[in-house]
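Take a protein:
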Amino acid sequence: MVGASPAVLDALAVWPVKRTGWLVGVSVAAVVLTAGGFVAGRFVRSPAELAAEAQPPEPSLITADVVRGRISKTVIARGDVVPAKQVSIAAGGGWLAQSDDLGVSSGVVGPSAGGGVLTGSFVSVGDQVLEGQAVVEVAGRPLFVLQGDVPLTRDLRPGATGGDVRRLQEALCRLGFFAGPVSGVFDADTRDAVAALYHSAGYTAAATDGGSGADDDALAAADRTVEQARDALAGANLAVAGARDQVASAQTAVGRAERVSQESQPGSATASDEAQAEDDLAEANRALAAAQRGLAAAESAVTAAGEDVTWAVEARDRLRARVGVVVPMAEVGFAPSLPAAVTAVAVEVGFAAPACLLTLTPDALVVRVEGLVGVGSGMVSEGDFVELAMSGGETRAGQVTAVSPAAGGGLGWDVEIAPSEPLAVALAGENLKVTFMEATTSGEVLGVPQGAIGSDSAGVLSVAVVDGIDQASGRPILRRVEVVVGVTGIDLVEVTPVQTGELAEGMKVVIGG
């Protein structure tokens, strides 16, 4: 029982000596001893075998194919979809802020305090706002949007003058409510045009008396004063006509008295007749003088009555110029350019109107990358093309429109990108993947993995090309090919052989082993 262990032999020695049991025991023992011999033979190694197993394996080479194509170095970043420019319309009709090309300016321009409850909202995100459109209603009053570079800073009343009145008139001209001239004076034609604007939206324009009717009462009283003055003038003119008739009658009486007096010359009449003729002539002259004084008084009364009419008319016109339609600054918001898309609506109907009612963007949405790093100075510039990965998996080209050092003195660059196709307003606020191509080959070139390029002590760059297998040794035949390196991409490096034809697509180069 070669190969059996002492433990196995001891176990066999105590088995019962029965014919059947002995046979079974012997059979089992044989199996056990055979298995023990197999295990011992399996794990026991000769010194030669152990030495052979200790030798390192035959080294093998790791290779890669030489490929042909365009090679680019890309930088991946994230960018936000934002309006290139935007205006936040305040509850007071002014701007809360207006953006510039690469950011939103701070500060408040014009009135901004919210007030009242939003009782109507006529636009939604994505809608286009046209000039003259009422976009919301606060406490039952509309807010119109007109085009202008400066918001209102005061209520515009009849008689007001200035650049804000001129901008209002220009907007009313564009809308067809005002025929001009654009004078910068809030005159009657401007008042009528404002009233027409409100009427077109289903509202009544605000009035200087707040709708109490006091202005109408004052205008009616002024009209009555004018009519009374005109009636007085008409009476004075009648009195002048009567006075002139009296003068004419007196002149006729004087004429008759003069003829009678001439006929009563001494020698042709009695002394009593002569005296009577002289008395009649004197009386006629006195009546003529009185009539002439009456005419002068009547003419003075006409002059005074005419002046009263002039004063009454001027007073009424001044009143008309001061009262009537008014443009509250809370009801007109100016945007630098229209139409503009709605990018945000601040609150729902029924809630208190906040300082900012809605945000408009008159320009297309852009993608803005802030603090771009991983690119060399000047490697990203205006006009460069990028790839934008949309949230739904679609890709879209874009072009860099502005590059500036990171705001606040931070690292990297702030970059603005214009998509090749306009982005839907609903995408405002989305964060997109942006792929910048820092460098790219002008066409298809040969490329190899970066690990394939080696350098000797002189700094000469080369790749090891596999030219087949040595039949005698079974080892690869290698050939060094000197190369010039070009654009380095993510996976490949552009290589050009110094000797034309020494490197071609499909060849294998060593990258390890």
About this structure: DSSP finds seven helices and 24 strands in the chain. The mean pLDDT is 80.
